[in-house]
Amino acid sequence: MSSTAVAPHDPQPEPLPPLQWYALARDLNRGDRDLRRLCLALASYANDEGRNVRPGLARLVDETTLSRATIKRRIDDLITAGFLRRVHEGDGRGNASVYTLTVPPSVRALRGRP
Q1: What's the whole-number average pLDDT of the chain?
Q2: Is domain 14-110 in CATH 3.40.50.300, yes or no?
Q3: Separation between Cα atoms, residue 96 and residue 54, nearest integer Å
Q4: Domain ranges within the chain, ordered by starting residue
Q5: Would you say residue 32 has pLDDT above 80?
C-alpha cells in the first residue's frame, strides 16, 4: 500500500489543525455517522498542527465501536480522498501507523488557498 494517496504530480496536501479538519470532514460527510465518529477520533490524536496522529487500530475500535475492517476501509477512503496522509505504515504489532490530517488540493482551492 502506498504511503500517500496523492499522485506524484499533485501538490502535497497541507496539514490542518485538528478542530478545523474535523469540522471540514464533518461538513462534507453529514450523512455518514461512521465516518464522522472516525474523523473525531483521529482528530483527537493529532497535535496542534494536525500531525503525528497515531492512535492504533485497537484504540480506534474501542473509541468508535466500529469494526477493524470498517476502520481500515474508511481510513483508506480518507487517504484516497486526500483528507489523510499516512506518513508511516504500522506493522500491527504495537507499531501504529502515523497519519497527518490534510486538506485535499481540490478542497483547498474551494477555500481560496493556493
Answers
A1: 84
A2: no
A3: 6
A4: 14-110
A5: yes
